[in-house]
Task: structure prediction
Amino acid sequence: MKQADIVVVGGSAAGLTAAITARRHYPNKTILIVRQEEQVLIPCGIPYIFGTLEGPQKNLIPDAVLEKNDIDLLIAEATDIDREKKVLHTTEDQVGYERLVLATGSRPAMPPIPGFDLQGVFAVVKDVEYLSALDEWLETAKDVVVIGGGFIGIELGDEINKAGDKQVSIVEMLSHCLALAYDEEFCCEMEKVLESRGVKICTATKVKQIGGSGRVEKVVLSDGNEIKADTVIMGVGAVANVDLAKSAGLSIGLTGSIRVDRTMKTSDDNIYACGDCAEKISFFGGRPSPLKLASIATLEARIAGANLFGIRRENVGTVGVWSTAVGDFALATAGLTEAMAEERGYDAVAVTIAGPNRHPGLMPGAANTQVKLVFERNSGVVLGGQVMGDATAGEIINAISACVQNRMTAEEIAMFQIGTHPALTASPIAYHIVNAAEVAIGKMRKRC
Amino acid sequence: MKQADIVVVGGSAAGLTAAITARRHYPNKTILIVRQEEQVLIPCGIPYIFGTLEGPQKNLIPDAVLEKNDIDLLIAEATDIDREKKVLHTTEDQVGYERLVLATGSRPAMPPIPGFDLQGVFAVVKDVEYLSALDEWLETAKDVVVIGGGFIGIELGDEINKAGDKQVSIVEMLSHCLALAYDEEFCCEMEKVLESRGVKICTATKVKQIGGSGRVEKVVLSDGNEIKADTVIMGVGAVANVDLAKSAGLSIGLTGSIRVDRTMKTSDDNIYACGDCAEKISFFGGRPSPLKLASIATLEARIAGANLFGIRRENVGTVGVWSTAVGDFALATAGLTEAMAEERGYDAVAVTIAGPNRHPGLMPGAANTQVKLVFERNSGVVLGGQVMGDATAGEIINAISACVQNRMTAEEIAMFQIGTHPALTASPIAYHIVNAAEVAIGKMRKRC
Result:
């Protein structure tokens, strides 16, 4: 039997970050990661395996970081937790622990669409072998249907489309791709970009059936249309892996994930959870949130890892910050969209500012950039932002996220001291974030 | 005689932004800008006139924004203020005002180096005709010496060097180019980039004399060396234009700029000042600050413009956020460097994190990126940050600036909810800003 002060189950973004954080905070403790995978994929990089990168081997988290941080590794499946004896059972060995961190992640949701078990139907499974097989299958594929137009669906669809010899279609049951995270005008721009690259978009329709005998031949939609298909990839979300937690009798939350408090502690004082397997609450209002993102996972891991032997950090709730890119076009979001804010009952004031991200606009590399900020009218506090532009959108959203997390008001954002440069940003006279706040102040004043 | 409720003297970044802000806050007031220039240059774009852009005409602030905001324009030189009668005298007409905003800007410093009046010696004068003449002169120039290795000096030097037929040298009296805004290791990287592009760098030496008979022939350095030169450009800083304010009897501050309070009001209750002509105080400690940047000017203008008929905003002091770029290489800074923090008496803890700004690092466009954060040991509050990387550095610094302005602690920054994407940012496990805070926490803990 092995023994470690801190045992982490799972070696992806959450597990690894929890272990590294534990090492930072508890330099004298022994730390062991137990994971199933020989090699760990970078989760957000998975869509890029099929185009930009050349296969799963180019998208791995190097294990060198374990040695560097004095973290031991056991490759095995965790099968059971003896909470009384504080022992983790695995397929290889038993492991005694002082503190256990569950970072068991999630697996793709597989809705029981008739035909989902046909040959040629895949999901985005975070497994090198599985994805290698999909990669190989795609070499001869001609008609690919991606079910689900969230960020995984559109990135995957676009990457597969890059080969140039396939017709890729994305089917989304909501009115627009990305509709859960962006306001309609942002979604429409992304759909236009995808279509201009040859990807077919079918929105506001469900998949009724995957047709074929033995192998996939077509996808039948609820509107009666059929799409020819030799490959179907499900990208309809993820389900928390809670089997281990459940069988150990840990509390499960409303979203089907492991219930944790703000310190990331589960219902067992010696067991913490973080990442896709752990329940999240929203930064806005505090209700459970279904978001699952690697960036949220690492934040929770930094909380869990620091708190193992004494509370040092608390989770203020998930803002939800992320970005997506297709070609040179990027979208990014933080917090609530205008539609989400209204749905939740906020009196929202939204302002969009458009303009180049260089100054003058004639500077090379200038891309049209739009920033939308959403404020709560009474307090003036910013609730969220969305950015549309080039690669810089991915960092502009982080500046916005800082404003959201500090619950800055429009007035405070109008006083934001930004740095600008002709070759790098919008002009100081027209900087999107600041001007959106200025315009919002005017709108809020008028309606008072 | 003309009359306007609000009269703004100066039409560049500060004046224009003050007028637009006044329009936002006081929709019923009449607003007039009085400026000397027929056409207004984008100040930060000036170095790019000589390479990337093709002449001053590609680097103008369009006057359409005036009409759009219902702002009148008088092209004339302001010559005197009759504060008692509230009348501005100009070379064209007299203008009565309720509130006057001085945004008279700055002019290049011209140290009395022997030979500074020779033909072929220029400065960075914000004037279309002057810069057109310099542009034309440079067509036949072969040996160009830029005196001053601040951001104007290095950008100008690199742009002129792009023509490929000139030897450009930059002379800087401090030990490194950019030494007033970056720690040494950042300055050295920029010097390497400039040298790799063929620009000669001479640091830690002053210019003793500009030699020649009639025309420039050489630059004589204090170390005895001589540099062949047919062109010399002075880029050694700027001096506030305060003649108008001085002759009107307004108070002048310690840095030679117009003294203002935190509302941007001068010693006259009806006169405000903003931009390069107005005195700044530092966000750190509150002493006068010599910084002059368009982004600071626009912030001050948003304060002045809002406060003209009642105090709405106060200036918390200048953080100092700006970036610079040479080719694909960018540097950005916010707040205090490690050296500045120590000089001012802070017990500084600095951490640098290096790594690609994509994940995996094999993603196309990945550039090595370094982020350095500086914290105050006792409080853990972040005092500043520096970024080295590609174009995204210009927005990463704005996320850091948000942290600085909110006086976030290392612990709060370690909990920063960032958005990440393979094609846009560093990985969530290795995001520079967050990890710098994590490492700093460890350093601060050890020394307690």
About this structure: Chain A is about 25% helix and 25% strand.
